[in-house]
Amino acid sequence: MPVKIPDALPATRILTEENIFVMTEKRSASQDIRALKIAILNLMPTKEKTETQLLRLIGNTPLQVEITLLRTGTYSSQNTDEGYLRMFYRTLEDVQDEYFDGLIITGAPVEKLDFTDVLYWDELKRVMDWADGHAFSTLYICWAAQAGLYYHYGIDKHPLSQKLFGVFDCQLTDRRDKLLRGFDDTFTVPMSRHTQVDEEALRNCPELVILATSPETGMALARSADGRRVFATGHSEYDRDTLAREYFRDVSKGLPIQVPHNYFPGDDPERSPNLRWHSHANLLFANWLNYFVYQETPFELTQLAEPKREEQKP
Questions:
Q1: Which one is catalytic: 123, 142, 152, 280?
Q2: Do 155 and 298 share a domain, yes or no?
Q3: Are residues 115 and 257 in the same domain?
Q4: Alpha-carbon distance 36 to 285, whole Å?
């Protein structure tokens, strides 16, 4: 089934050329189907590329999905044209009275900052609070996963001695979990971050279930006990060349950067990297959409109730 996106969004043409089933707004208006409503808060600087990466995975499921793209209202992106953002994106204020089956919050290149020093931290806290009552399940990716774990559970991050950069093997800790159905015992996922969540605090939190980990990456995948929050510390949505573009960007700027781990064949940057993580990326998104959104969300989204928030948030 298709993913419903705006007719003029550049991703529409790209995904159609890749034979990904997309449906324009005009065509979807003729169908009497209750599509899943998924919002994406896109915090990445390369918004068009991130849109396409996420929509490619969402569109490869048997569910019809209607997408709403969100951006921060208190901080303006320096890498995306403002006209593009006004055309395709909305803010929390625009949707605060609406309800969604699911929400995806992307990573952001701000992990070296303390959470409270991020310019849009207060707005992100409002989004995370809003999501608990207006989106049935939220998928937090990379830095957003760290931010969500910190805000909801008080689990902090710490700096790494060297950037975690490359494609890493991760092992399942409980293959019976619905989010992991179809997964192999070991799967690969791209990582690109300077910080790590406090693993001991994570393991000691009874409200969380760790689903995948490795000695190199630490926790790779976890969720809340009720499945309403899913945390992925990697970038399974990345394209074949995403890490390469990041590597060559830093090389051209004279910045210290190691060759991405287990990425270029023979660690030779002149060779095209192998795409080895998209099968599990598709499984992750399909399982989340099916088992934690479609199978659980109420048909009438207004039935989502605001939860009581008695704990003190950072």
A1: 142
A2: yes
A3: no
A4: 14
